[in-house]
């Protein structure tokens, strides 16, 4: 008797993996998820391998990896390329740390501007709005790099 999970339609696969059917099709077009053969006169069937791959992709996306990076990780998944995978993760970690530093600068600047707004005491102009118009918020050092 064949296991029910080995005979999933694309809709069943989407439900099992917690993604949309269009997401599966998109991943297939990108080469991230293989498209199974369609038996003559029948529909494509998916199994546990595809559910596992979609779980891998979802987890990697939550860690901030792009689909291109995920495709590269999938290429390295045979277990013999740990150093290469580690290098990819190190680059991602550096990107995340840079974003966090940028967000901390934004947080400090906004806190200063909010404080200035609370201390304005009768000022006609709002310090926050004035700073935004002038483009002079802490020398713009808070802006994240893209």
Automatic annotation (TrEMBL):
Pfam families from the UniProt entry: MerR (PF00376), MerR-DNA-bind (PF09278)
Domain HTH merR-type as annotated: residue spans: 7-76
The entry's keywords: Activator, DNA-binding, Mercuric resistance, Mercury, Metal-binding, Repressor, Transcription, Transcription regulation
GO-annotated molecular function: DNA binding; DNA-binding transcription factor activity; mercury ion binding
Gene3D superfamilies listed in its UniProt record: 1.10.1660.10
InterPro entries named in the record: DNA-bd_dom_put_sf, MerR, MerR-type_HTH_dom, MerR_fam, Tscrpt_reg_MerR_DNA-bd
SUPFAM superfamilies named among the record's database cross-references: Putative DNA-binding domain
GO-annotated biological processes: response to mercury ion
UniProt superkingdom: Bacteria
Job of this protein: Mediates the mercuric-dependent induction of mercury resistance operon. In the absence of mercury MerR represses transcription by binding tightly to the mer operator region; when mercury is present the dimeric complex binds a single ion and becomes a potent transcriptional activator, while remaining bound to the mer site.
The protein's name in its UniProt record: Mercuric resistance operon regulatory protein
Organism for this UniProt entry: Modicisalibacter ilicicola DSM 19980
